[in-house]
Amino acid sequence: MKLTFLGTGTSCGVPVIGCQCEVCQSTDPKDKRTRCSVLVETDSTRLLIDCGPDFRQQILPQPFRKIDAILVTHAHYDHMGGMDDIRPYCQFGEINVYADPQACQGMLEMLPYCFAEHRYPGVPAIQLKEIQPHEPLSFGDLEVVPFQVMHGKLPILAYRIGDLAYITDMKTIDESEMAYLKGVKVLVVNALRYDKPHHSHQLVDDAVEFIRRVGAERNFLIHSCHDIGLHAEVNKKLPVGIQLAYDGQIIEI
């Protein structure tokens, strides 16, 4: 199984429009962060987790092949604002989009023309599939189990796919959900920045503590803003086994 980090940034992306900080002005490609999204692929199956407003830019360098399903974490624009751009992939057939009830409702409100009785020719062919935490899903040779984390006061979905767990926008997690992380070997989890606590996002120290609780062998930090610092400097500071992910990074699982 292969994971490609399409985007690793927070809702504003990096560089932030109008910002003159050293991160936003950096020439290192690893300091350019589009909104969070990943591809999870085997030879026969391809899943997209989240489809934010940078999706077109993110997917252009990737091979053009069928997307078997889109898994949505939650109903915020930076995680589903690029859904209209999946239309070229509809030549392979309708695309199933899996989301919790609140995200499904958000999709209906954001893209009403995709779900009208008489659709305008050429709109994305989307089939919304409402899912709940802990109900397993099967896509080709991939088994997926959604579980729940808290984005502030908002329950959102995270996903366990074999030895991989993918978590974004988490502030806290109920102890009962930790069972779904047992035995994970690769953990992807959000870390906004080092200081200035946020009401709905983990900081780096929070993420490191959580990573130690889970005990995965390899750990990658995502959903990071410009305040986290330069990519190269952050990776020098992180404990062994933890990396700050970057856009375009590929890992084998």
Structure description:
- The protein has 253 residues and is α/β, with parallel strands linked by helices.
- Helix content is 15%, strand content 27%.
- The chain is built from 5 helices and 14 strands.
- It has helices at residues 55-59, 77-80, 101-110, 204-214, 231-237; strands spanning 2-7, 37-41, 46-49, 69-71, 95-99, 126-130, 137-139, 142-151, 154-161, 164-166, 186-190, 218-222, 242-244, 250-252.
- It has a 7-stranded mixed sheet with strand order 6-5-4-3-2-1-14. Strands 7-8-9-10-11-12-13 form a 7-stranded mixed sheet.
- A hairpin with a 2-residue loop joins strand 9 (154-161) and strand 10 (164-166).
- The model has no long low-confidence stretch (mean pLDDT 97).
> What's the SSE pattern?
EEEHEHEHEEEEEEHEHEE
Instruction: Count every beta strand, where a strand is a DSSP E run of 2 or more residues.
Output: 14
State the helicity in percent bands: 10-25%
Q: Cα-atom Rg, whole angstroms?
A: 17 Å
Strand content: 25-35%
Mean pLDDT: 97
User: Which regions contain 5 or more consecutive residues with pLDDT less than 50?
Assistant: none
Query: Globular, elongated, flat, extended or rod-shaped: what is the shape?
Result: globular
- Broad structural category: alpha/beta
* Largest sheet strand order: 6-5-4-3-2-1-14
